Amino acid sequence: MIDFLMVIFFSFIALFILWMIMVGRMSTHVIMLGVLLIVAATGNYWSLMTYRGFPTTAVMGKDNSMIWASIKDPTPKNPDGLIYVWVYDPDRETTRVEELLHLNFNSKPRAYEIPYTKESAKELREAMKKKMKGFGVLLGLELDGTGDKIPKLKIQTIDPYEILPK
Question: Model-level pTM?
């Protein structure tokens, strides 16, 4: 709801500034302030969407510990299908905003949206079954070198019984 209200509010500000420019009652300083306000509001809106927990389409690191996944198979409404994974990525680089505000998101899980393929969905379903049995699952995305722009999902399962001393 707040997102909708922000868009309406800043649209009215933009229309008001445009009307004032057309009427000719504004100095260039006020015009520049209005443009700066609109740019700052747009940047603030998109950064808020990122920090609210929406999945990112950014490139995932190589060895992420999978927490869980959500797979939405293709339907008539969504013919592409969707795959969301929630991972812990200890090697993720911090952004400038995180450095500026002294935030440490590296110790927190992150949601990713990855391209849907039947193969990826099948492999993830198997990994989720193993996760429920207590196995560790590492995820990563990498290009397979065939020129395909869709990265291939790399899944590695870790059997805890092989790691623990007997």
Answer: 0.62
Determine contact, residues 67/90, Cβ cutoff 8 Å: no
Note whether residue 59 is domain-resident. no
Does 107 lie in the same domain as 40?
no
CA separation, residue 16 to residues 10, 22, 31, 44 (Å): 10, 10, 11, 20
Is 112 in contact with 55 (CB distance < 8 Å)? yes
| Residue 84 DSSP class | E
Please check whether residue 67 is in contact with residue 88, taking contact to mean a CB–CB distance below 8 angstroms: yes
136 neighbors 160 (Cβ within 8 angstroms):
yes
pLDDT at 48: 62
CA angle at 124 for the pair 118 and 130, rounded to the nearest 5°:
145
**Domain range holding 134?**
64-163
Residues 101 and 122 in one domain: yes
Q: Is the pLDDT confidence value at 7 over 80?
A: no
Q: Token match 């492999």: residue?
A: 123
Spatial distance between the Cα atoms of 100 and 19, rounded to a whole number of angstroms: 37
